Amino acid sequence: MQLSEFDIIQQFFQKAPLRSDVVLGIGDDCAILSPPPNENLLVSTDTLTQNIHFFSNANPFDLGYKAAAISLSDIAAMGGKPAWALLSLTLPTVEEKWLASFSEGLFSLLDLFEVTLVGGNTSKGPLSITTQILGFTQNSVALRRSGAKVGDAIYVTGTLGDSGLALQIQQNKIQKDFFANSDLTFINTRLNRPTPRITQGLALAGIATAAIDISDGLAADLQHLLSASGVGATVYTDQLPLSEVLAQHTQPPNSYQIALTAGEDYELCFTLPPSNMPLLERVSASFQCPITCIGKIEEEEGLRITLPDGQLFPLRKKGYQHF
Ligand code: ADP
Ligand code: MG
Fold first, then answer.
1. Residues lining ligand 2 (ion), CB within 5 A?
2. What digits encode the pLDDT tens for the residues 154-210?
């Protein structure tokens, strides 16, 4: 028998609230939530649309996982602690197997970060997935894009360009045959199940001066941070953190181009004064991902990407743009 909208919600999305700050979860016109009294609320929303963010044959577990990941990544970029999520799901048809797997992927990540799904919307139409995330700043310290100062060092977490490489293979721009299975698994996991850098963001709050998560490509997203801060920067191509897989399968300058512009890394790019470097070294010891200094903040506006010989790197495009 065909499941109704309410069967779908009950069967796949309504779980007993895990958090004590959820006074009322899914089932009423609104959820009732009880934020900590002295903290600011962080709120963000993201949409995944078929043929733009994913293809029709995308694995539903991965879609659920990624829907949670990209929202959590926004909280990470603010140095916040995630708490609650909402899900607006538009489905062309009701396929129980698809929904079970989507829900499993979504909750695998929400549960990991102790986030409770507290509401949403379910309707019929072309497949589209929107998640809202709510979280708190810890001790009222949020990492904004606007705090970078001249003299700050620029860092990124993890490695850049792996998702971009996976996407190029998916789009048949690079031949899959050249890759070992383990390498394909690595880059596909980076693309389909990005790790939101929540623990890293929390540790950076109070240490970093500014932060952004890299969704559209380092060059584009760093430029947002620079504009918001009213500063410029130089980034050095030979300091860009490339995974072994990317370094092995691409040659400079193409590897730099991918690392700078391909997007979907969901790593954090952040700035801090040199005086905070010892503190960063201490907190990053438990990060479970590398952090790399890639450049410095300067007074002259704009982003300069510099090759080892001092020449400017000719960026073909800055990053993904919808319009
Ligand atoms: P309303 O019509 O008042 O907006 P709905 O009937 O659409 O409420 O939804 C019933 C309840 O189920 C609400 O609490 C809503 O937040 C929740 N909900 C609807 N769709 C989803 C979903 N995909 N995931 C989680 N909660 C959902
Ligand atoms: Mg209502």
1. 29
2. 999 999 999 999 999 998 888 899 899 999 999 999 999 999 999 999 999 999 999
From the CA of 15, how far away is ligand 1's center (Å)? 13
Residue 315 forms beta bridges with which residues? none
Q: What angle do CA 302, 314, 295 make, to 5 degrees?
A: 50
Find out whether the beta carbon of 9 lies less than 6 Å from any atom of ligand 1.
yes
pTM of the prediction?
0.95
116, 117, 121, 129: residue to mutate for ligand 1 pocket, most atoms within 8 A of CB: 121
What's the pLDDT tens digit per position in 9-48? 999 999 887 799 999 999 999 999 999 998 999 999 999 9
Tokens of 192: 């389909």
Residue 38 CA, chain-centre distance (Å), reads 27
Q: 35-44, 52-61, 207-216: lowest mean pLDDT where?
A: 52-61
Residue 87 has φ and ψ, to the nearest 5°, of -130, 120
